[in-house]
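HUMAN: You are asked to prepare a plain-text protein record giving the amino acid sequence and the backbone structure tokens, both parts labelled.

ASSISTANT:
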Amino acid sequence: MANSSRAPLVSCSPWALLVLLLFAAAFVAWRLAAPLLSSKHDPQAVPRAITARGDLAQDEQATIELFRQASPAVVHINTTERVYDRWRMTPFDVPQGTGSGFVWDERGYIVTNFHVILEADRAWVSLEGGSSPHEARYVGGDPDNDIAVLKIDSPGAELRPISIGTSKDLQVGQKVFAIGNPFGLDHTLTTGVISGLGREIVSVSNQPIRGVIQTDAAINPGNSGGPLLDSAGRLIGMNTAIATPPGVGSGSAFNVGVGFAVPVDTINKIVPDLIRKGTSTTPRIGILQAPEQVKQALGVEGVVVESVEPGSGAESAGLRSLERNRAGGFRADVITAVDGRSVGSIVDIRSVLSERKPGDVVQVELLRDGKKLVREIKLK
């Protein structure tokens, strides 16, 4: 019988076949992706060539030079509040706020907003490039116009006074530049234009500040007290407030393109008074305004004189205090205008007198018993 031989059969399980197929698929995928992977990095990569730009534009050069010249006059103000540890019975200072200011002269006088130092016990002034902050002494303040003066002891070589301009001839559309320390960021420049003139804001003493400059140059918390400059680098205003959208609390104030600055003509009038005597007193005609109810009872427009101060210009001019007649009505002098400007409250009178000084004579128009009178009053 012939012998026959058969090749041995090799059995392959489904799992082994699956593994084989997966390995084959991975191998094919790797071979296909290899060219892509090898081109992801280039060991020969070098920096791009720089394209020449030429000279800066003329307005750019002007802005750079303005900042270079004016920024040394701008200071950073940090304030602290003195608190007491009730357990250790020891005082210590805690940060209270920050703001801006500017150097007024070589003697170390610094001008800022009154509200920047309002609740502070101590203030520290940092000069541009200065070695360390200088502790400042409070010289004086005018809360009605939100102006304050501090003084630091610093070598004259470190002090670069700001250049002073005027605000009486400003025009809407002029370029303006604000330098300050918004959110504590040192010496920040923003630009814009004069958006409006003759605006009115309310001071920290709840008095109106009139003739305020409106600008769209970005002004944020920390800019308060910093300078607003014209294109010649001159001070034309002090950045003081920003508009807050309706429904947004004052604690959440942020820039919306509407900022306000106290005009430099007001600053230049008040600061010397603060340096000389610590206060800036608006001259007075010497009257006390009657309550609004009396004005309504009389049915008049103007300022009803309740009383006249002894020895005042109003007394010398013959103004009379309020009297009640037998019929229960009132007899009163009613001031309707001062130097040709209509007035409806004592605030309006103060606004007119803020442009005057003691010793000036103003013309006062008034109603007395239905008759129009004019009196000249010397301010005190």
